[in-house]
Amino acid sequence: MNVYAKIIVFLSFLIFLFCKQSQETLPQIQNAVLNLQTNSFQIQTTLPLHGEWKFTPGVFTDVDTKDTILISIPNTPNWNQFQKETIEEGLGIGTYQITILLPKDELRLAIHLPMIHSDCKIFQDKELIGEFGSFDEDGFMDRMPRVFSLKPTNRPQVTLTFYVKNRFYHFGGIRIPPIIGTEEEVYKSIQVSILQEAILSGGLVFLGLYQLGIYFTRKKVKGSLYFFLFCILMFFQILSTGSQSLFLVIGKKMGELVYRIDLFTEYSGVIAGLFYIHCLTKEYINKKIIYGFSLLILIPLFNTIFGSVRSISSYHFYVLCLIIPILILHFYLIFRYIQDKRSGYIYLGLSILFLIGAATNDIISTLVHRSEPMYLNLGLLLFVFFQSLFLSKHISGEIVSAEIKFKDVLFQLIQSEKLSSIGMTVTSVAHEINSPLSAVILTSDSIRENISDFFKQLPQLESISKKSFPFVYTLIEQALNQENLPTGIEFRQKKSQFLKDLENNEIEFSEQYADIFVTLGVKEVPKEWLQILHDSNSKALLLLTEKIVTILQGTNAIQSSANRAIKIAQALKNFTHFDPKAEIKTIQLSESLNQILTILQGSLKHGIELKTNFVNIPPIECYPDELNQVWTNMIQNAIQSMNGKGKLNIEINQTILKNNPFAYVCIEDSGPGVPKEILDKIFDPFFTTKPIGQGTGLGLYISKQIIEKHKGIIDVKSTKGNTKFIVYLPYSQKPNLEENVA
Predict the structure, then answer these.
(1) Do strands 127-132 and 179-182 pair parallel, antiparallel, or not at all (unpaired)?
(2) CB 664 within 8 A of CB 724
(3) Taking the CB of residue 61, how many other CB atoms lie within 10 A of it?
(4) C-alpha radius of gyration, the chain, whole number
(5) Is 572 in a helix, a strand, or coil?
(6) What is the pLDDT of residue 261?
(7) Transmembrane stretches, by residue range (predicted)?
(8) Which of 377-381, 406-410, 491-495, 637-641 has the largest mean confidence?
(9) Cβ-Cβ contacts under 8 Å for 495 (sequence gap 6 or more)
(10) Mean pLDDT throughout 569-598?
(11) Which residue of 79, 247, 455, 730 has the fewest CB atoms within a 10 Å radius of its CB?
(12) Contact partners, residue 280, CB within 8 Å, separation at least 6
């Protein structure tokens, strides 16, 4: 069973429990008598006065007359059928009466009148205990719920008599049963009702304000505006039909205003809901039908504002008859919406279906003149519940979308900053690549010439004898192993020494041999070489050796230059590569820094004294591409701050911060420093001290975002002539640290 089915089953069970009427266990008024002698008010703390009341139409009396009858409340719709024909429908007076057999326990009982739409006086054994409204013709319409406490008595029973006069409402008499219970529990039930109304109305206001925000931020989406209006109208509908909430604000004498608000919000809420649903389902129905129904409701809607209370109540029955087909239209549109599996169809569809179902039940009950059961508040509660689920899913979706968009924007910023970085280093990088390529070209030309000369001289060269081969091999090996060619002074000194030794041993071609020995990196002339140098073919052997060494040295130079070009190209490739969906990798920070230093070497070797202290520390887990951007931004800033001349120190080590292990990278330069007044602003986006066109102001901002993404810390310390940027990066697992506490 999927999650939606579970939700539906759970809510259906709740509705069943809420709606189930356990009338068998509640005391009922039978033949105008309510027996509470066996009722303890512990299981059912309050109970409605359902059942057979005595009713005497047309008079106020505390005794039965020939016209006294039994009527069932709430099943009897109103007293219109019992009044005299000469009296205008709905008007008139009447007397309701019941006898209550009191519980054996001495309890302080109270009567709660939720709403009767009429003026009323309540008597307990012929003694007035409460009044609702006013019997004066110019009195105000009272609809505020009221509680009247029963007076203590030693008698086993009391008789309650209700004198009721109707001056306003089309349907007269007691239609909504009063509620009896202990005084404490009655007031407690009212407080609970007020709390429920506050929660429900607050939920509606929240939903409405959210949709209003969407309306103003999402290109004026009309559906959001209609939803906002519907929620606000239902907010006032709850308050106007609730326990006491609205009366606590405007006062108890504003019953007529509350009644107008009640019906105004009911009618206009139907229109707002219809327009909201139509915005979701425009393709299912012609908008002229929507406008037609709305215009029909506008007439009684304006009547709730300008008409008399009598006319409002008279038209109410017919308006409800008109609302029924509108609700059917609501149901059809939402059913189509769910059937097509539109966006949010589960939560949105269920919320509106429950609301329509509850509203339909209440309207039909009113049309058949029944005051119970009413489920609009339950429907609104389910509406708020499902809409909250819908909005939470929608908001979470938007948060995820926003995070994705933020990552995309950050990716674009990093790429933009990388292009800016590459633009500033393109000259030096081009020079770094051109240098090894030029060496390759020149060396290859030299090798080609040497090989050509070698083949031209080949007929004159003699074969190397077994005796002479060690001599030739040693010369070649020494030449290839020498690291640096001697300078001018060293060359002359070594040549002078070789020339002296060779002349002392009467070696022919001494000066030419001395030049060759210095060039080939010979450190000294062994005695066994002297015999070979006396041979007639010694000159040929030395020339052959020199040619071989020159060719081999050329190939080494080509290989070295090619490797350097490859290293620079690979560093550029790693630097420019960025994958927003990249996974965390384990790297050595020294490798990451060395890549950047390779790229920026052209900017570093002219006037920048670079010192590195890369301690061998455990690797860290990170996003390497992003950290490369951090190092590039900081090293470039350091180079630019020194105007290409100064000292740059880079250190990699580890430390402990707040009892947690961190790796850190410190980039220190000898530039002029960052002024104190702007030190707090350097990480702000678009803040830069560089001239227009030479900086985006995003480098340090992006660096800070990247470091914070890695749960790290970036710190800056700056004085005149010394600026340090220190980046602390946490270890995911604690390595063994040496004593190096910051």
Answers:
(1) unpaired
(2) no
(3) 15
(4) 49
(5) helix
(6) 86
(7) 198-216, 225-251, 257-277, 289-309, 315-335, 347-368
(8) 637-641
(9) 514, 515, 518
(10) 71
(11) 455
(12) 223, 333, 337, 342, 348
User: Helix, strand or coil for residue 87?
Assistant: coil
Distance (Å, rounded) from C-alpha 159 to C-alpha 97? Answer: 7
Closest CA to 706 of 622, 636, 642: 622
Strand pairing class (92-101; 33-35) = parallel
Spatial CB neighbours of 64, under 8 Å, sequence gap ≥ 6: 54, 56
Three-state secondary structure string covering 622-656:
ECHHHHHHHHHHHHHHHHHHCCCCEEEEEEEEEEE
pTM of the predicted model, to two decimals? 0.53
Question: Could you tell me the two tokens for 133?
Answer: 């409204």
How does residue 22 score in pLDDT terms, banded at 50, 70 and 90?
Answer: very low
- What is the identity of the amino acid at 177? P
Q: CB–CB of 465/538 below 8 Å? A: no
Residue 561's region, left for phi above 0, alpha for psi from -120 to 50, else beta, is alpha
**Lowest-confidence pick of 307-321, 500-514, 625-639:** 500-514
The mean predicted confidence, pLDDT, of the chain is 75
- 55: Cβ–Cβ under 8 A, 6 or more apart, which residues? 68, 69, 70, 71, 79, 82, 94, 95, 96, 97, 173
Residues whose CB falls within 8 Å of the CB of residue 102, separated by 6 or more in sequence, listed in order: 36, 37, 109, 153, 155, 156, 157, 158
CB-count exposure of residue 88 (10 Å: 0-12, 13-18, 19+): exposed
Question: How do beta strands 33-35 and 157-166 pair?
Answer: unpaired
Task: From 607, 595, 674, select the one nearest 637 (Cα to Cα).
Answer: 674
Give residue for tokens 């929507």: 290
The better pLDDT of the pair 733, 443 is held by 443
What is the C-alpha separation between 545 and 533, in angstroms, rounded?
Answer: 13
Please state the rounded mean pLDDT for residues 427-438. Answer: 59
Instruction: Please choose, from the candidates 491, 588, 457, 471, the residue with its C-alpha nearest in 3D space to the C-alpha of residue 538.
Output: 471
pLDDT at 430 (0 to 100): 57
27 vs 694, residue with greater confidence: 27
Between helix 624-641 and helix 699-709 the angle, nearest 10°, is 140
